Amino acid sequence: MSYLYKIEPRDSINLDAIMDIIDKNEDLIEYDYNNKEDLICLQKELTKKLTNFVNKIDNEEIDKKELLKHSIRESFELNSSDIIIIKNSQIFIKLFDEGSVKKISDEEKNTIASRYNGLDEDELKSFYNNFFLKERNKNFLYFVAEEFVDTYMLDKKIDNFVYEKYAFSLIQSIVKEHLINSFDKNDEFFKGFSGYVFRKHFKEVFNHIANLLLSELSASNKYITDFLKYYSLNVVVLEGQKYRVPEIEAANGLKWNVASMMSIVKIYVKTEMSLETVKEQKEELEDAISEYYISSLSPIEHNNKITKEIEKISQNLIYATKRLNIYTDSFDSSKNKQESESLKSEIKELEYEIEMNKDEKSKLTSKMATKSHIVKYNNIKREIDALKRHERRDEKILAQNKNAYLSIRNSLVKALTSKKTLIEEAS
Questions:
Q1: Among candidate residues 303, 272, 262, 294, the one with its CA nearest the CA of residue 394
Q2: What is the structure's pLDDT at 8?
Q3: CA 255 – CA 216 distance, rounded (Å)
């Protein structure tokens, strides 16, 4: 059953106004969107009108997003199970037919039949392609893994047996909650869809979990150290039964244990964290140094450009001055009136040219970056250059240890996703 927004008296005026906007813009509503009978699209123009109205509501107590969703439910007379998605400058309505959900019998629970909570896989695939890929950002699966590790391992400190029994269902539950928070509150649909997403990104989620555990191992977290030591036990006895424990074993047969992992993981994780810090610092300094750029040029490049222009003008001045001196001498010694008038005109043009060049030279000189400006730029530039050298060193260390680290991580993923197996006693 979907969560329904509780309408307060203060919301009623806004609710009516939103419904009125929808009613007056029926031409901007596309039914059977993408030839799907269960999909309705409120086009960008209508979505913009609705969001603009809602954003102008001056009341911090009102949950604007939920008010908008409730208004849409009222306007379209939706069932509580129908899903409203506000994404990518459009609003979509996914009509959910609860009657299409296959009821899972007791015998089918925890089997393939119950994998997607009785929902049709094609329907889940369609929702995934239409909405999840657009909705998902690069951190979605990382946040799921992080919440699992933080909540159940670092906080509750579950043991290996509890982990093995409940890890998959706990992770899927976290995926479901993240999806509900991202989309809409429909437990039935997102319980099935979370199974689809988790299955599709199974390895990616566990890659994140393994990375997080190895990061804790590098910090010598005792609980994580003990948790990982379990995978080196080979055999455990539980309620009188012997079980073979999954091993942290690479594809080439190399077996990792806490001691052999620790040295590589410490270097790799420490260097990775260092590199991340260096990149953040470099990015901050690059933002800071950009303020000293002039017309996309560094102050040094800017001054060099102006200096070349000034040198060109200075050469013109030297040449014009020489010509002026020649014409002036010729004018002083000239006895021919017509020649004198011609020289006089040439002299005036040269004097004007010289004056213009001097003005241009003066203007260019005034545009030169100051010494203080250049000093500040150079100081930041030196810091950036030092960080770049640090960055290259860290990248080299990571490259040298990458294969070993990936071997550890991939081997750990295999162990984390495996279960102990019963050892049959010989009769």
A1: 272
A2: 55
A3: 20
Q: Are 178 and 201 in contact (CB under 8 A)?
A: no
Give the model's pLDDT for residue 341.
Answer: 79
Who contacts 49 (Cβ-Cβ below 8 Å, separation ≥6)? 21, 25
- Please choose, from the candidates 274, 281, 264, 310, the residue with its C-alpha nearest in 3D space to the C-alpha of residue 380: 281
CB neighbour class for 421 (10 Å; exposed up to 12, middle 13-18, buried from 19): exposed
In three-state secondary structure terms, 143 is helix
- Cross-strand pairs, 41: 30, 92
- Distance, CA of 425 to CA of 286 (rounded, Å): 67
SS3 304: helix
Sign of CA pseudo-dihedral 341, 344, 346, 349: negative
What's the sign of the alpha-carbon dihedral 209, 215, 217, 223?
A: negative
Give me the phi and psi of 237, to 5 degrees please.
-110, 125
CA 1 remoteness from chain centre: 32
Joined together, the tokens standing for residue 132 give 């999840």
Mean of pLDDT over the chain: 86
The span from the CA of 242 to the CA of 244, in Å, is 7
Give the H/E segment covering residue 236: strand 235-238
Helix (H, G, I), strand (E, B) or coil at 392: helix
Sign of CA pseudo-dihedral 156, 157, 159, 164: positive
In this structure, are residues 178 and 140 in contact, taking their beta carbons and an 8 Å threshold? yes
Name which of 50, 53, 56 is nearest 25 in CA terms.
50
CB-based contact 17:57 (threshold 8 Å) = no
372-426 tens-digit pLDDT: 999 999 999 999 999 999 999 999 999 999 999 999 999 999 999 999 999 876 5
Q: Report the distance separating Cα 416 and Cα 277, nearest Å.
A: 30
CA distance 331 to 343: 6
Rg of the chain on CA atoms, in Å: 36
List of long-range contacts for 11-16, beta carbons under 8 Å, 24+ apart: 11/62, 11/67, 14/53, 14/54, 14/57, 14/62, 14/67, 14/71, 15/67, 15/70, 15/71, 15/74
Question: Hey, what amino acid is at 197?
Answer: V
pLDDT of residue 3: 45
How buried is residue 136: exposed, middle or buried, by Cβ count under 10 Å (0-12/13-18/19+)? middle
